Amino acid sequence: MKQIIQDLKQGNTILEEVPAPQVKSGQVLIKTSRTLVSLGTERMLVEFGKANFIAKARQQPDKVKQVLDKMKTDGVMPTLEAVFNKLNQPLPLGYCNVGTVVAVGKGVSEFQVGDRVASNGNHAEFVSVPKNLVAKVPENVSDEEAAFTVIGAIGLQGIRLINPTFGETIVVTGLGLIGLVTCQLLQANGCKVIGLDFDQQKVDLAKAKGVTAINPGAGTDPVKFVQEQTNGVGADGVIITASSKSNEIIHQAAEMSRKKGRIVLVGVIGLDIQRSDFFEKELSFQVSCSYGPGRYDDDYEQKGMDYPIGYVRWTEKRNFEAILQALSLKQLDVQPLITERVKLENFEEIYGDMRKQGSIASILEFPEDSVQNSKVQVSERTFKASEGIFGIIGAGNFTSSTIIPGMNAADANLKYIASAGGLSAKTLAKKGDVAYASSDYKEMLSDEQVDMVMITTRHNLHASMAKEALEAGKHVFVEKPLCLSIEELEEISTLAEEKNKMVVVGFNRRFSPLAVKMKSLLGEGPKNIVATMNAGFIPGDVWIHDLEVGGGRIIGEACHYIDLCTYLAGSKVVSVCMNALGTDPEENTDNASILLKYENGTNAVINYFANGSKSYSKERIEAYSQERTLVLDNWRSLKAYGVKGFSGMKTKQDKGHKKQFELLVNSLKKGGKAIVPFEETYNTTLASFAAIESLKQGKWIGLNEMNAPKKLEAEEVVMN
């Protein structure tokens, strides 16, 4: 299928051939017929993409600060690589989509194949959209009209916040697409509407709909005009739908408001507010959030959990439905706002000049014979049996920044990369010289040439995909964690043994040259290990904190250090105790100390903290043994105390990914021999579960209390 994307690095707007997305649980798959180009929002994104690096930085000062902080901890080059990697990821454009449902995901009952719907899907021939962001289109509403649903909901949410009553005077500042729609909706609410814009054509359009509109550029003072129109009282409310960096707009809104008036911001303007403007009249000011309640709430949007109508009458979906009803009842007329209709293949007629005079609303028309292809060939690479051929499931930031470069450096044979949406898979396939981009990972499972499947998705998918790959007779590499429950761990362990296949987890720290050197210097016998992860704060709404999706940061991230301590100890964990910060810590804590007792007497303390300074080293390991002390700092340096003939070594920041991938690729080409005994991976995973159980029970937990570790023999151990 074809999709319009914005290249943020080069600044080009592209019609890209990508795999059609797969319908997800809780979503519907839509074949697009029309989309509306939001000239204001999309122009901002396109112009941001075309700006040079310095200009991009100036537009995002908060991001610049994050970059500077990252440089302090990770170094200049790794930080710049991360920044450029982010810019290399294309941005899908569009959020006003109309089409026909062609597939329904699990858990969706309110839609059926064949339904005509409006959604916030992108400019793509097929889109998979969560059910709470989709609404059915009435029979008497055309696809063109329905394409205004999302834009209309943005204006409607601003109106709901300003809460107008019949007969009130409301000013709309900015008569662009959203502003003109907002004016009509206010009129339907029984309001007198005054419109302000510097574009005379838009002013004339508003007047044609009965709006009292003026162009301040023609010499009329907007504040005095509003005062005259309200007999000196002032406007009951002001809705700002303009886009400008000027602070004058908010100042004028305050001046033209009556005492205790309301101001709602829907657009983007300068917000250097003068206290006196608001103090004297006791004005209220509120910023409207997109389409309405539920926006940016994963529980509502992604998980489909609706808000009770008795408590939240108007959600974003209900706002969509209200706009469609207004279109059906002819309370909202959008046909006069359409200034051009363009075939999808001629998209450059719109995006070539998004500032051309007279443009208000542009409609993209999609072909009726769109092809729902799940696989796109990206390169002409061919493969032979027994070469060690890989397929990758997941095309996120980690895959882009670490997996693809590492596998390319290891000269891996990459045949597939799959992502549910398709676009990210196509982007990384081009970057990594991968033969095929796909939206259906099952294609690589059924391909007999593929020897190993690499899973880099969100954590809740690791176990199920690993089991599917093993069932299909593939070796498996899974980014940490291996799974999120003991039951899943047992199932994977049993399958790996039955199928005689290698299962490798992305515990890369043990492969770092500094860790390898540290282990060799420590020698045999029990040790004391103190490992600190200054992990940094992550907001509570990020998916990794969700125990069902990410498993929490202890299982999801601290497992790295359990494996590292196991490697340095040369033994297996037998018991665990975890204490977390606070008087009543929760299961998904990210501030904790984990105490590990090993079979050979080694003690290890893992401090996983999220409340430290980002300017301090992110990772630090200290090991004590036989009157020797070794300190590994942030994977850049290793210092030794009491070690004859060795004081230390330095290297570029190396967490061991490269070496792990080299061993993985070489092992696969030699028939798939284990690079780490699976019993160590099993033991590490079980220990991370035991840490959480210890927190809940408030006592030491022996691993035999969880489930006795398996005794699996590795065919060959390349590195132990």
UniProtKB/TrEMBL annotation:
Residues 178-297 form the Alcohol dehydrogenase-like C-terminal domain. Coiled coil: none annotated. InterPro entries: ADH-like_C, ADH-like_N, Gfo/Idh/MocA-like_OxRdtase_N, Gfo/Idh/MocA_Oxidoreductases, GFO_IDH_MocA-like_dom, GroES-like_sf, NAD(P)-bd_dom_sf. Residues 390-507 form the Gfo/Idh/MocA-like oxidoreductase N-terminal domain. Residues 541-628 form the GFO/IDH/MocA-like oxidoreductase domain. Residues 85-139 form the Alcohol dehydrogenase-like N-terminal domain. This is Bi-domain-containing oxidoreductase. CDD domains: 2-desacetyl-2-hydroxyethyl_bacteriochlorophyllide_like. SUPFAM superfamilies: Glyceraldehyde-3-phosphate dehydrogenase-like, C-terminal domain, GroES-like, NAD(P)-binding Rossmann-fold domains.
